[in-house]
Amino acid sequence: MTRTLAIAASAVVVIFLGVIGWLTLGGAAPDDQFAQCRASSVAGDLGGPFELINGRGDTVTDKEVITEPTLIYFGYTYCPDVCPLDVDRNAQAIEILETRGKIVTPVFITVDPARDTPEVVGEFAEVMHPRMIGLTGSAAQVKAASQAYRTYYKAHDPVDGEYLVDHSTFSYLVMPEHGFVEFFRRELPPEDLADKVGCFVDAV
């Protein structure tokens, strides 16, 4: 795969983020316990139940995965540059939070189940962070999880047996008793992400 192709894929993702329609900037409701932490609002409900397969090959539900504050990212392990950078940013933020006495679970959900088997996502997650949970599933299971969080993904036609997958690049903070509480853009540095996630953790 050429570097040009990889850059083109990244550009498509950036363009998509520029026109995505369901995300609106604004404040939170006055009675929201997380109001002081929020930088945005989302039209309608976001997040919800899912059933996926972890790196050990076990079928798990959202209730079994989200047992503490959880930072979720949708991507794929064959991603040439965007996903590794985003997932590493999340892992760095998780480590910063750990030094502050706050435990947040990093989760990686693939949007390329054809190539990302349980073993593949399990190894990827372990390399990125020792507590990261890698999840895959059938095409239908992955689609259902993606739709719950309103993420976008679309695979390109294969070129010499390889293909890229366009996808949205937000990270989602989900709390066990509250569900989805906030999303974060990929431009946010690790320290800033840790600060923002920490605010929500402290507000529980």
UniProtKB/TrEMBL annotation:
Similarity comment: family membership: Belongs to the SCO1/2 family.
Binding locations of Cu cation: C79, C83, H167
Disulphide bonds in the chain: C79-C83
Pfam family, one: SCO1-SenC
Organism of provenance: Sulfitobacter aestuariivivens
Single GO MF descriptor: metal ion binding
UniProt-recorded name of the protein: SCO family protein
Keyword Metal-binding among UniProt keywords: yes
Keyword entries, A-Z: Copper, Disulfide bond, Metal-binding
